[in-house]
Specification:
The protein has 505 residues and is mainly beta. The protein has one domain: Beta Barrel (Porin), CATH 2.40.160. The chain contains 6 helices and 23 strands. The protein has an 18-stranded antiparallel barrel. A two-stranded antiparallel ribbon has the order 19-20. The N and C termini lie far apart (48 Å).
């Protein structure tokens, strides 16, 4: 049996042991369903409400093999524990709301030798956490959210929010129908701007948001400065010299559109931190370019679900372009997504068959005056890259997926992805955007004039046990292609899995 297969089996065994322990704890805990949140006392006839979320996740990594690194070790295999406690207090009276929330992330047993020399770099998310914190065990506490809301009842359809808050592009107008709502949550929202919710520290924005709703139409505008966080546990401060503006016009389900929704949106992004950008230019050229980044993104999306035969068909398109400045270069890039599915609503487990294709532009000429790599800005990348060794930049992603509902509150979703680069003279990118003032937020490895990144097979199980308890189990295996082989001579197969528990009040 090959060494890589033995490591994969070991990874699966460790995850199975964690999953068995988790299920045993669930079944023996005796939790009973109850409504979320807790009213502490009343002021002016309205309750002061407290909420809390505790998340704990054990991750197991067997990253691509870098071979012998500078310290004589090959620490691409490890596991670590991460999570957070979020506690909030809210109050609403006469159309005015106040919410404040503290967050305390923690990281345990991070690998301290999983950052290899270039081109291998960071060997999994354990290395991403270790790099900015430089310790294996760490924790912190900070203000996660604190804002005032002036509600629609007070201002006749207009809602205003100001302070520190989370923002998720694509979730401004949420449909009620479950299948369409799933598409928004899992295949539209957070592609370009979000809180990076998979990370144990996440991000917020300091700024203001306004939205106006009239019938099926909604207009939303937001300006914010992102906070530190994501992989860096000290998430209190803002990222200096960076800001973002967002505007969207949404239309929801209505008699003319049926069970569908659409959005046109614009994002302005400015990064003046003075860091060397990650791109495909020669290293000395990129390192000398500190002019900053200013990108205008104009995009649109549409999703619809329609009854057909014994089930429902769904259609989704998303895409647009980017212009602006990437340091001394012009920015000209684009992205397009098309997906379709069919769900058998009356069959056992309600099988939902889905397929999709994502393509984003890459830069085929590192020596001209134009940067053509699509830039993913500040997303939650893991939603669209479940095994996060890639993201949406310079990418082709051909996806097939089956979503099953074997029991109430349970969602099982195996999938397959064929991944290759759009431009072989560009980089293989990973990451999810800026999170402090010293690291760019994205990484890139050379493609060596190759295109094939990997074939990914994975499966995720989500289990909502009751109103207070939920669990997620994930395992993915990547069969690396030529791009991986060019960077990782020690092994081109990789495994990633986790067991996650979320307790909420």
């Amino acid at each position: 049996m090959g060494h890589s297969r033995l490591r994969a089996i070991t990874c699966v065994f460790r995850l199975a042991r964690l999953a068995a322990l988790t299920i045993t704890l669930f079944l023996s805990a005796g939790f009973r369903p109850a409504s979320a949140g807790l009213d502490l006392f009343t002021v002016g006839g309205q309750p002061v409400t407290v909420s809390a979320t505790l998340r704990s996740r054990e991750e197991v990594w067997n990253f691509f093999g870098p071979g012998e690194v500078s310290n004589g070790q090959d620490d691409n295999r490890y596991n670590f524990l991460g999570g957070f406690l979020r506690m909030g207090v809210g109050y609403q009276h006469s159309g005015v709301g106040l919410f404040t929330e503290m967050m305390a992330p923690y990281l345990v047993n991070l690998p301290d030798n999983s950052i290899a020399p270039a081109p291998q770099g960071l060997l999994g998310l354990g290395a991403n956490y270790y790099q900015p914190n430089q310790v294996s065990n760490t924790a912190d506490a900070f203000l996660k959210q604190g804002f005032l809301v002036f509600g629609r009842d007070l201002l006749h359809g207009l809602e205003l929010k100001g302070g520190r808050f989370e923002f998720f592009d694509g979730q401004e107008l949420m449909p009620d129908e479950p299948q369409l709502r799933w598409l928004v949550d899992n295949r539209i929202a957070q592609r370009l701007v979000a809180n990076f919710g998979f990370s144990d520290v996440e991000r917020s924005f300091d700024g203001a948001e306004a939205s106006y709703r009239s019938g099926p139409w909604q207009f939303t505008a937001m300006y914010g400065v992102p906070t530190k966080g994501v992989f860096y546990v000290q998430g209190m401060d803002e990222i200096r010299d960076m800001d973002l503006a967002y505007a969207s016009l949404n239309v929801g389900p209505n008699p003319h559109w049926g069970n569908s929704l659409g959005r046109i949106f614009y994002i302005y992004y400015h990064d003046g931190r003075g860091l060397a950008p990650v791109d495909n230019r020669p290293t000395n050229v990129s390192n000398a370019d500190r002019r900053g980044i200013e990108i205008h993104s104009v995009l649109a999306d549409y999703a619809g679900v329609f009854a057909l035969g014994p089930g429902a068909i769904d259609l989704l398109v998303w895409g647009g372009g980017q212009l602006g400045a990437w340091g001394r270069l012009k920015q000209e890039s684009w992205a397009a997504v098309g997906e379709a599915g069919y769900r058998f609503n009356s069959a056992p487990w309600q099988p939902w068959l889905r397929a999709g294709y994502t393509v984003t532009s890459g830069d085929s000429n590192p020596n001209d005056s134009t940067h053509q790599t699509f830039f993913q800005i500040l997303p939650t990348p893991r939603i669209y890259a479940m095994f996060p060794f890639y993201n949406m930049m310079n990418l082709n992603d051909l996806m097939g997926q089956v979503i099953l509902a074997p029991a109430p509150g349970v969602e099982l979703s195996p999938s397959i992805h064929g991944l290759w680069l759009s431009a072989s003279r560009d980089l293989w990118y990973a990451g999810g955007g800026a999170f402090n003032n010293s690291l760019f937020g994205y990484t890139g490895r050379p493609a060596d004039s190759r295109n094939n990144i990997a074939t990914l097979l994975d499966c995720q199980l989500k289990w909502i046990v009751n109103d207070h308890l939920a669990a997620t189990f994930y395992y993915g295996h990547a069969f690396g292609g030529g791009v991986v082989s060019a960077n990782f001579p020690g092994g081109k197969e990789a495994d990633f899995g986790f067991v996650e528990m979320v307790f909420s009040l």
